[in-house]
From TrEMBL:
It comes from Macaca mulatta (Rhesus macaque). Gene3D superfamilies: Transferase(Phosphotransferase) domain 1. Its EC number is 2.7.11.1. Residues 1-116 form the Protein kinase domain. This is non-specific serine/threonine protein kinase.
């Protein structure tokens, strides 16, 4: 059972993800809540975490790194344009879809911000 602090964090993550629709951000499809459980259904990232990919393969080519970096920047810019900060960018939170494109995931530390 989750304590109120962790439950609040999960609800905020769901609230953030509902607002995001970008090709390089993992999509939230459905949230189901029962008395004891909360189920979050998201897009499937077939090729897993960037962390695991780099651990197995060692590195990216310069062209591939450039492409992935652009995808990350595009996703982060989209978040910021919608007054959302991720606050936990790391290779474990960068997923790879079936085309080896980046999908930014895990908005557990994310939050809204006011510009100005």
């Amino acid at each position: 059972r989750l304590d109120s602090s962790n439950l609040e964090k999960i609800y905020r993550e769901v609230q953030l993800m509902k607002l995001l629709n970008h090709p390089h951000i993992i999509k939230l499809y459905q949230v189901m809540e029962t008395k004891d459980m909360l189920y979050i259904v998201t897009e499937f990232a077939k090729n897993g975490e960037m962390f695991d990919y780099l651990t197995s393969n060692g590195h990216l080519s310069e062209n591939e790194a450039r492409k992935k970096f652009w995808q990350i920047l595009s996703a982060v810019e989209y978040c910021h344009d919608h007054h959302i900060v991720h606050r936990d960018l790391k290779t474990e939170n960068l997923l790879l879809d079936g085309n080896m494109d980046i999908k930014l995931a895990d908005f557990g530390f994310g939050n809204f911000y006011k510009s100005g």
